[in-house]
Amino acid sequence: MGINMISLPLNPDTSYTASSLATALNSTIVIQVKDGGFDAYVHAGSIGNDFLIQMGKGYIVNLLEAKNFNITG
User: How many angstroms separate the CA atoms of 15 and 21, rounded?
Assistant: First the structure.
């Protein structure tokens, strides 16, 4: 719950975008570091760039509740 740093340890069988990851995690925001700054997707109102979630990159998510997240790949 709250602000968390996550990374995908493998290439998932199903690709995720910021919006689909936010939905799966019940997250209000997904942020990535890009070009020395930040690129954010705000789930409420679908604001921002709906970027691809990639293996090995770090993302900041704000979770509304504790959540287990399992992926296969």
Answer: 9
b vs e for 5-33, b when ≥16 Cβ sit within 10 Å of the residue's Cβ?
Answer: ebebeeeeeeebebbebbeebebebbbbe
Q: Please, which residues have CB within 8 angstroms of residue 66's CB and are 6 or more apart in sequence?
A: 1
Residue 52 has pLDDT above 90, yes or no: yes
Domain boundaries, the chain: 2-63
Do residues 17 and 70 lie in contact, with contact meaning Cβ atoms separated by under 8 Å? no
CA–centroid distance for 56 within its chain: 12
For 11-34, the pLDDT digits (tens) are: 999 999 999 999 999 999 999 998
Give CA–CA dist 1/27, Å, rounded: 9
